[in-house]
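Sequence and structure are no longer studied apart. To make this concrete, we show below a single chain and its fold as tokens.
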Amino acid sequence: MTEAPSVAKSPPGLDFTFDESVSEWNIPGPQWLKLNEKTWDGLASGALVFDDKDRILLVQRAPNDSMPNLWEIPGGAVDDDDPSVLYGCARELWEEAGLVARHVKHVIPDGFNGKPGAVFTNRTGKIFWCKFSFEVDVIDTREVKLDPNEHQDFVWATEEEVINQAIGERKIPLANSLIVNILREGFQLRRSGKETKAEAAAGDS
């Protein structure tokens, strides 16, 4: 842990921008469900935040919470009164990690047939959610501040460390297969984006 966690305060204005590719989610969750004729009980979101070394932010669940001590990305339920699904993602990022979203880049194709959205249930298997995860640029990656009621620690992990679920000798067991898939697709999408930019730059030279 690079600094002692502290509770995040009330969110700032969350005045972020977003790519056109994610504009579909710039509406409230209930409206998105209705427009897409989905009968899930709700939507959830996750934020993939990378630093300038292409390491991703992982947070460790609190010891007294469900899935204790396991690792995940910041995220949670999109509230019905959130102005949009994207806002819900930015809000959860602030509440869980104290980071302020600057720009939502793209959605992660982590669902069925390579489409965005991973469906999961509650413990009883009776309530269905769909989680959309987005790569999010933040104002300052150095400002991580955790809510100790939800998370106890954080790390910045490389793709190899995520695959191995370990940083050196320290184990960082991921919460579930859903998180494993989100991270795999997130790293791949980020890598593809960098390759595309490099090819474009080479073509312009």
Q: What stands out?
A: The mean pLDDT is 90. The domain at 17-200 is CATH 3.90.79.10 (Nucleoside Triphosphate Pyrophosphohydrolase). The longest strand covers residues 128-138.
